[in-house]
């Protein structure tokens, strides 16, 4: 009997965990490696949005005008502390170059392709994992103070429409019909009815990890110091002595440093995201609500109301800037009543972002057996399952085996 292919997946966020599951369902011998518990990093703190209409990259025409504010305004939705500017400058220059109209169109096409079918895939996955209650398909509501504010986002909405995503424009009455608790500041809305929210991203990843382990997949809690090609296979420095036939790097913002010694240079930067969660306040909104003028996502979570967003390009080492989380709290209290006396908790995580917002998914050129699944930025949850299928299909080329009762393997 032929030995199964031995694969290491480095990184147990939602991208790495879903990739490990997809590979194991195809019969591979898979080891999922992370220094933390599955889903405990950036995946735990995201806003839970499943957003296939997010085809507009972060760098859009006109972004250059926002750079001074990024550098000097600590409460800017896009903030780059001066201390980090020398390190981030190469990425920032690429980011500005990515805002050229032709580059935006190319990025949008790639994003649309990797988003395709994400809603149905996540709905099916929650059912398969036995957690269908985590999938809320109530749409996403984008809010603007007035028509002038909406006009600033016109390019993004035109891009969405060009890929078939139709948004309903709402007046104040339409907003109140969907979300009566929104403050009068917001007079114009754009509603994407067929979008979804995962109501507990960490529990979702943990359910995936449980299915993977039940199917015979291994989870190793360890850091990986380096990747060593050895006789057509790969040896990992740190967690295990046994070589692997293939290695999938899905280590998020840490992928860049891991790959650089091999000559694989990713233009990857951590965009530090924050959230503040009001405990027990889930019913304040009934769907994902985006305060578009402030780049803030307000999400009903199982444990409360999560207010997340903004971008801080500040690297992997500096401690969280508590001003960012406090700003989210002020915005939420200004927008929704009844939050003043609720307990809160805060979080900061590292979104792995490419200058053009397009993730790197596939084989690493010149390095047989090395695969990349990183750089998903703000859309790691949306694109995780499609990334997993793309890697598994390219690496193994066989269909998954499953049963109604959960993950099962006919032969492993």
Structure overview:
With 412 residues, the protein is an alpha/beta fold. The chain has helices at 14-25, 42-45, 67-72, 85-97, 101-115, 118-129, 147-152, 154-162, 172-178, 201-214, 255-259, 322-335, 380-396; strands spanning 6-10, 29-34, 49-50, 78-79, 135-136, 140-144, 168-170, 188-192, 196-198, 218-221, 226-230, 233-237, 246-249, 269-279, 288-291, 296-301, 304-312, 344-353, 360-363, 370-374, 402-403, 406-407. It has a domain at 1-54 and 101-134 and 197-266 and 355-412: 3-Layer(bba) Sandwich (FAD/NAD(P)-binding domain). Strands 4, 6, 7, 8, 14, 15, 16, 17 and 18 form a nine-stranded mixed sheet that branches. Strands 10-2-1-13-20-19 form a six-stranded mixed sheet. Helix 1 runs parallel beside helix 10 (201-214). The longest helix is centred in the last third of the chain and has 17 residues, at 380-396. Residues 402-412 have low confidence and may be disordered.
Overall pLDDT? 92
The profile of the biggest β sheet is:
9 strands, mixed
Question: Count of helical segments?
Answer: 13
- The name CATH uses for the topology of the domain at 1-54 and 101-134 and 197-266 and 355-412 is FAD/NAD(P)-binding domain
Q: What is the β-strand count?
A: 22
The whole-angstrom Rg is: 21 Å
Q: What's the CATH architecture of the domain at 1-54 and 101-134 and 197-266 and 355-412?
A: 3-Layer(bba) Sandwich
Strand composition percent: 25-35%
Q: How would you describe the shape?
A: globular
| Text of the CATH class of the domain at 1-54 and 101-134 and 197-266 and 355-412 | Alpha Beta
CATH homology-level superfamily of the domain at 1-54 and 101-134 and 197-266 and 355-412: FAD/NAD(P)-binding domain
Backbone structural class: alpha/beta
Low-confidence stretches: 402-412
Report, as a whole number of angstroms, the end-to-end distance. 10 Å
Q: Report helical residue fraction.
A: 25-40%
């Amino acid at each position: 009997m032929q030995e199964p292919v031995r694969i290491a997946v480095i990184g147990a966020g939602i991208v790495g965990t879903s990739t490990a599951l997809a590979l194991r369902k195809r019969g591979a011998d898979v080891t999922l490696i992370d220094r933390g518990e599955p889903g405990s990093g950036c995946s735990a703190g995201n806003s839970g949005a499943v957003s296939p209409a997010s085809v507009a990259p972060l760098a859009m025409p006109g972004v250059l005008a926002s750079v001074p504010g990024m550098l000097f305004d600590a409460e800017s939705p896009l903030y780059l502390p001066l201390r980090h500017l020398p390190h981030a400058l190469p990425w920032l220059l690429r980011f500005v170059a990515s805002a050229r109209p032709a580059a935006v169109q190319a990025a949008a096409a790639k994003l649309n392709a990797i988003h395709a079918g994400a809603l149905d895939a996540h709905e099916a996955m929650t059912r398969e994992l036995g957690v269908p209650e985590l999938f809320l398909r109530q749409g996403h509501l984008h809010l603007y103070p007035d028509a002038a504010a909406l006009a600033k986002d016109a390019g993004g909405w035109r891009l969405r429409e060009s890929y078939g995503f139709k948004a309903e424009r709402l007046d104040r009455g339409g907003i109140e019909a969907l979300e009566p608790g929104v403050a009068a500041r917001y007079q114009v809305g754009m509603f994407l009815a067929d979008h979804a929210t995962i109501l507990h991203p960490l529990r979702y990843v943990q359910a995936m990890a449980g299915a993977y382990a039940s199917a015979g997949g291994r989870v190793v809690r360890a850091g990986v110091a380096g990747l060593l090609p050895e006789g057509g296979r790969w040896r990992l420095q740190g967690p295990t002595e046994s070589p692997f036939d293939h290695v999938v790097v899905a280590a998020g913002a840490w992928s860049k440093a891991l790959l650089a010694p091999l000559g694989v240079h990713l233009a990857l930067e951590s965009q530090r995201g924050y959230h503040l969660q009001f405990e027990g306040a889930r019913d304040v909104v009934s769907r994902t609500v985006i305060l578009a003028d402030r780049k803030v996502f307000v999400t009903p979570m199982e444990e409360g109301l999560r207010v997340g967003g903004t971008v801080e390009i500040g690297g992997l080492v500096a401690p969280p800037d508590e001003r960012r989380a406090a700003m989210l709290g002020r915005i939420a209290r200004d927008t929704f009543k009844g939050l003043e006396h609720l307990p809160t908790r805060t979080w900061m995580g590292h979104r792995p972002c490419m200058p053009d917002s397009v993730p790197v998914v596939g084989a690493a050129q010149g390095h047989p057996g090395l695969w990349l699944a990183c750089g998903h930025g703000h859309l790691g949850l949306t694109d995780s399952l499609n990334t997993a299928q793309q890697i598994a299909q390219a690496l193994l080329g066989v269909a998954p085996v499953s049963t109604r009762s959960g993950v099962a393997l006919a032969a492993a």
